[in-house]
Amino acid sequence: MENVFNKFFNDYDDWYQTPVGQFVDQAETQTLVKLLQPKAQQKILDVGCGTGNFTIKLAQQDCQVTGVDIAPNMLQQARQKLQQQQLTAQLKIMNVEKLSFLDNSFNAAFSMAAFEFINDIQSAYQEMWRVVQPGGHIVIGTIQKNGSWANFYESPACHGTAYEFAHFWTAEQLIALDPKHFVQQKDCLFLPPNLPENNYNLKADQNAAQTTNIGGFTCLLFQK
User: Fold this and answer.
1) Which is nearest to 37 in space by CA: 61, 68, 56, 60?
2) In which region does residue 2 sit, left (phi positive, over 0), alpha (psi from -120 to 50) or beta (all else)?
3) At 129, is the secondary structure helix, strand, or coil?
4) Which of 5, 17, 131, 149 is the Cys-Cys partner for 71 at CB 3.0 to 4.6 Å?
């Protein structure tokens, strides 16, 4: 897994305070929750948790969340945010390609915008599968290759950012990790990047889905 975010961590959360960042966060969170279906007291693993954006959201729902990442600087920010909000979650420096948890340790596992930076996605998926209990949900959320957002991140405009080190996947490539246990795909971010800020809202994104085949972000549900 590429440890690029230990360098590009200082302004990572700042973008989520912008109108576009807030829209993206709402759209991705809504899509994740529809598939993951988290419940209070469930043990849930957040793979590539970064600064704790989704870890915090699930902790607010009284889930027992464990977040893992290989970037210590981002985990430190996550700890500070949890403390500020008086929330509890376990945060560990760990590579998803070799998790140290026992088999069947979690009710569910998910990863949002981290598979773009994982070297061996097959090993990563197999490890997520291993630590989830039978019947549990596994959700992989990723910026979708050939979508407008991946195209933007692959453009010269994003050279010098963390996305210069990203590798984007199609939904079909990720489904191929385990087609037997694939359940459902949900996309969001049908609106392209670089529109005027006031164009971004969930209703407008739903409308854009009627004329755009590929969402900029996709979530894929597997069930063990």
Assistant:
1) 61
2) beta
3) helix
4) 5
- pLDDT, tens digit (0-9, with 9 covering 90-100), for 45-63: 999 999 999 999 999 999 9
Q: How many domains does the chain have?
A: 1
Contact 139, 125 (CB under 8 A): no
pTM flag (> 0.85): yes
Residue from 170, 218, 215, 160 nearest 193 by CA: 215
CATH classification of the domain holding 28: 3.40.50.150
CB 124 within 8 A of CB 99: no
**Residue span of the structural domain in which 157 resides:** 4-223
Q: For 178, which DSSP code?
A: S
Q: Which own/partner pairs from 22-29 qualify as long-range (CB within 8 Å, at least 24 positions apart)?
A: 23/200, 23/201, 23/202, 23/205, 24/189, 24/200, 24/217, 25/53, 26/202, 27/188, 27/189, 27/202, 27/205, 27/217, 28/112, 28/113, 28/141, 28/188, 28/189, 28/217, 28/219, 29/54, 29/57
